[in-house]
Amino acid sequence: GNVIGGGDWAKDRIIPDIVRSLERNRTIYIRNPKSTRPWQHVLEPLKGYLLLAKSIYGKNQNKDYDTFNFGPKIENNKTVQDVVENVLKHWPGSWENINKKSKMHESQLLHLQSDKAFKLLGWKNKWNFEKTIDKTINWYKSVYEYSDPYRKCMDNIEEFSL
Question: Is there a contact between 158 and 8 (Cβ–Cβ < 8 Å)?
Fold first, then answer.
């Protein structure tokens, strides 16, 4: 799935690009606001991988372990515009649709079929979309305010683990 969370600084990734614009008091430019993605916090699939490892370690040979997807239920997929507008609830700014064609092909609609993880592992997302955006943006804001990134990651992990 499209994972988001604090600590991603890569170029051409939606959250880092949004954060860089906001931190510089610049307009956020979005290419495909209506594109839909299975957004989730990075801790969600990590939880899935840990459940999978635990199940394999338990040698439950009746389960099919070849491939797993870890993503939100399809009805929880959100548009790029939803991401931007939810970010702006936590960090004021503005955005524009630039209608720029990307050199790379980008699908308008992405989703993951995670039924296998739901059924065989009992895995499901813990944080909804709004909480995921809240935790992600507050991570970046805290780091820009000279907070310790490691401590902020540990705070997120501790809260997620409750």
Answer: no
33-72 burial, b at 16+ Cβ within 10 Å, e below that, comes to bebbbbbbbbbbbebbeebbeebeeeeeeeeeeeebebbb
Which residue type occupies 160? F
pTM: 0.88
CA distance 145 to 143: 5
**Whether 35 contacts 109, CB under 8 Å:** yes
pLDDT at 64: 66
For residue 63, give the DSSP letter: S
What are the tens digits of pLDDT across the range 107-135? 777 778 899 999 989 999 999 999 999 99
- 37, β-bridge pairs: 78
**Amino acid sitting at position 56:** I
Query: Is 60 strand, coil or helix?
Result: coil
